[in-house]
Predict the 3D structure of the following.
Amino acid sequence: MKKGTVFVCQNCGFRSPKWLGRCTMCGEYNTMVEELEEEVSVALSETGGEPVLYSEIKETAGQRIPVGIEPVNNVLGGGLVLGSVVLIGGEPGIGKSTLLLQVSKDLAGREQPVLYVSGEESLEQIKLRGDRLGLTGEKVYLLAETALERIVSVADRMNPRALVIDSVQTIFSSKLTSSPGTISQVREVTNQVFRLAKNKQIPVFLIGHITKDGTLAGPKSLEHMVDVVLLFEGERDHNHRVLRVLKNRFGPVSELAIFEMSQSGLKPIDNPSAFFLRERPKNEPGSVVVSTIKGTRPLLVEIQALVSSTLFSGNPRRMSIGLDHYRVSMLLALVEKKIGYSFAGEDIYLNVAGGLTVDEPAADLGVVLAVISSVKNIPLPREMAVFGEVGLSGEVRSVSQPVARVKEARSLGFELVLMPEGNLSQLTGENITGIKCLGVNSVKKALTQIF
Ligand SMILES: Nc1ncnc2c1ncn2[C@@H]1O[C@H](COP(=O)(O)OP(=O)(O)OP(=O)(O)O)[C@@H](O)[C@H]1O
Ligand SMILES: [Mg+2]
Ligand SMILES: [Zn+2]
């Protein structure tokens, strides 16, 4: 099938007869790699193309098996669907292999084994990890192999309860001459695995490496080929990891799971709010607790602000970690204009404690209060949580899910919630007792209430 060479964008799969510095399809720079031009097989149903009457279709698809780790079950939408292909992407070293070895351990039954294929680590290396995770008598079979056709034939013979491929970038098909990790190979691997999964009803986990900018070696281009796409994220300097859903053909994409990386592997964090607030300082100006929504669940996080006079006049610093930079700039401008502070000579730093990111407008009121608390050098009430979007005239606007936010604050022992006045009516009939809910309609009102 070889006809010469072609340049393929490793980000989106765009093919061009000549090299391009920038892909004309997706606009990424330096993503064109020369590959031999060859036919890439297409995943076709092996059952042929006869039309089937809707009511005669058997309900075999959609059958789920539970994964031992409960939060993973939830993220998948209530268990692992037989025959589904799940892609798990994550940065190097984040814990992808750890997570899937734990899942393999849980899935391996007495009769049916789990096949864990590694294209990047030796069996001894994996065993070392397994020892740490407490693997003993489970029927987990390890296979160190990079040849796709061999993997498929072993899996076909073994008929495992689940198949893990670690990672999709290291496996290659002998049908193609391009090297492992190129977009053609990654697609071919996914295609063949997809067919195996559907034909034998074996659920498959594909691990994919991605870098921060998401370009390297194209798992991005796989997202439409697989059934479920999960993202495993975390901060290098923190122990917690977040498993998120980007796509799910069998469930919602709003769930997420939070884990702590420990000596004995990933442990689900049962009470994430308590976990992220555990080191909150006592009576420090500039610290505020915000009741935010992560996925579908409420989460309390601490936002910290530090305002201090700048050393270099005329060029004050503005830094925010874990918050949207533009939104922060807007809120700072608003505090200057509407509340009457001048930040011209001040450096302003903002941080979400614990390395979390908060990207919803409901955190606005918290950001504003943290900054003002730091400027005034007066701590906010310690037993207070806040939420609310702030508009450009300094008005506090209602946000979604006020009940869940208030209840989460109450369950963590907070005594007061400062919230949008517009949300108060949604609390009636919700049996909210034991916590005071203070509604405000502007930042000014909020300030007179607390200071
Ligand atoms: N003894 C240990 N105690 C706690 N954490 C550990 C220990 N050993 C390893 N880890 C954690 O496990 C992480 C590596 O996990 P793992 O190998 O599963 O990641 P990965 O995403 O598969 O990486 P790669 O990209 O190299 O395949 C390390 O970054 C570290 O945080
Ligand atoms: Mg790994
Ligand atoms: Zn492209």
About this structure: The chain has a mean pLDDT of 89. The domain at 275-304+352-450 is CATH 3.30.230.10 (Ribosomal Protein S5; domain 2). The longest helix spans residues 183-200.
